[in-house]
Design brief:
mainly alpha; about 70 residues; 2 helices
Length: about 70
């Protein structure tokens, strides 16, 4: 029997390289094939409530920045 001194043959390197590339390729294609989920659309009441809060906040800021003489 032949004893090897811990060296890896060229064939084993090629097989290891191909296995690594195959694993990386399957990981990339597996993640890329997932379909993105659509965003949930807010209801009309939520949109109105957000607009009302924003408008009230804007009015409050306007009151705070006005000079007292106006």
């Amino acid at each position: 029997m032949e004893y090897r001194s811990g060296r890896v043959g060229a064939g084993m390197r090629v097989i290891g390289l191909l296995a690594g590339l195959a694993a990386a390729g399957s990981l990339v294609t597996g993640c890329a094939s997932e379909q993105p989920k659509p965003m949930a659309q807010p209801s009309l009441e939520q949109v109105k409530g957000n607009a009302d809060r924003g408008f009230d906040k804007l009015k409050q800021e306007e009151r705070e920045h006005k000079p007292a003489g106006m």
